[in-house]
UniProtKB/TrEMBL annotation:
This is Probable branched-chain-amino-acid aminotransferase. It comes from Flavimaricola marinus. Pathway: Amino-acid biosynthesis; L-leucine biosynthesis; L-leucine from 3-methyl-2-oxobutanoate: step 4/4; Amino-acid biosynthesis; L-isoleucine biosynthesis; L-isoleucine from 2-oxobutanoate: step 4/4; Amino-acid biosynthesis; L-valine biosynthesis; L-valine from pyruvate: step 4/4. NCBIfam families: PRK06680.1. One of its GO terms (biological process) is amino acid biosynthetic process. GO terms for molecular function: L-isoleucine-2-oxoglutarate transaminase activity; L-leucine-2-oxoglutarate transaminase activity; L-valine-2-oxoglutarate transaminase activity. Acts on leucine, isoleucine and valine. It comes from the Bacteria. It catalyses: L-valine + 2-oxoglutarate = 3-methyl-2-oxobutanoate + L-glutamate; L-isoleucine + 2-oxoglutarate = (S)-3-methyl-2-oxopentanoate + L-glutamate; L-leucine + 2-oxoglutarate = 4-methyl-2-oxopentanoate + L-glutamate. The gene is dat. GO terms for cellular component: cytosol. Its EC number is 2.6.1.42.
Length: 284
């Protein structure tokens, strides 16, 4: 695989980052993951806008114009012949001369890394026709989950807790209400109404979430942006998650309780189809 590191395209084994990089030492960095279908980037604009916001919230500049970032995405997809998969992008506050809690002086070059991941079958229905099962776990992450930082230890632990419980993922709960999945936004469906937590510092504003809510409204579904509990979710007609890499993925079980019929719900599957079709058409 060819990867991008600080202005250069290099073989992954030749890529180098300083041991003093603040991404490595302090999780002082932000990231984006953008899906690829038919060798094209999905919703680049949404991802780059969120990236700019994440950087701004942490007092970091954009290291280069958005167009240049898009060009790197495209070049890597082409160099690595990715048909279906993802592009991972990470920007850190760079590598000061020594480890220090204080931010490095202004002008310290940021670290910019991008790489691709091939995932044949990504846009297909194999995984979605089965759906996933989740458990609930307490949400003990920090208070600025709206910033897409590389501080992913607790979500990783959550995935491992899910694995240990024999399921696929975990929904996190704070003050009795679901915040989001470990790496996705969480939804339930009652009748024709789609319910998902309102935006705020407590969750990441998903790019897929924004698109799916728009498609849901266009398809005459009702959207309620409010928090819900695990108990409410367990009595819902359907449940699902969204993320850039899973699109819309039905949830069939929460904490051992079957949701609806126990099979992927019709609204979730319909939204997935609309999302994949529309994203494919708009991909760049
Ligand atoms: N919430 C969290 C915590 C996430 O890590 C992700 C995936 N990056 C999402 C939500 C979904 O965001 P998106 O649709 O932009 O991938």
């Amino acid at each position: 695989r060819t990867v991008y590191v600080n202005g250069e395209y290099v073989a992954e084994n030749d890529a180098k980052i300083s041991v003093f990089d603040r991404g490595f030492l302090m999780a002082d960095g932000v990231y984006e993951v953008t899906s690829v279908i038919d060798g094209k980037i999905l919703d680049f604009e949404g991802h780059v806008l969120r990236l700019e916001r994440s950087l701004a919230e942490l007092g970091m500049p954009m290291p280069m114009p958005a167009d240049d970032l898009l060009a790197i995405h495209r070049e890597l997809v082409s160099l690595n012949a990715v048909d279906e998969g993802a592009v991972y992008l990470q920007i850190t506050r760079g590598a000061p001369a020594d480890r220090d809690f204080a931010f490095p002086p202004e002008g310290t070059p940021q670290t910019v890394v991008l790489f691709t991941q091939s995932k044949p079958g990504l846009a297909g229905d194999a995984a979605a026709s089965k759906g996933i099962k989740v458990i609930s776990i307490p949400d003990i992450r920090w208070g600025r989950r709206d910033i897409k930082t590389v501080q992913l230890l607790y979500p990783s632990m959550g995935k491992m807790m899910a694995k240990a419980a024999g399921v696929d993922d975990a929904w996190m709960v704070e003050d009795g209400m679901v915040t989001e999945g470990t790496s996705n936004n969480a939804y339930i469906v009652r009748g024709n109404t789609i319910i998902t937590r309102h935006l705020g510092n407590e969750i990441l504003s998903g790019i897929t979430r924004a698109a799916v809510l728009r498609f849901a409204r266009e398809a005459q579904m009702t959207v309620e942006e409010r928090s819900f509990s695990i108990e409410e979710a367990q009595t819902a007609d359907e449940a699902f998650i969204t993320s850039a890499t899973t699109f819309v993925m039905p949830v069939t079980e929460i904490d051992g309780v079957q949701i609806g019929s126990g099979s992927p719900g019709p609204l979730a599957l319909r939204l997935r189809e609309i999302y994949v079709d529309e994203s494919r058409k708009a991909a760049v």
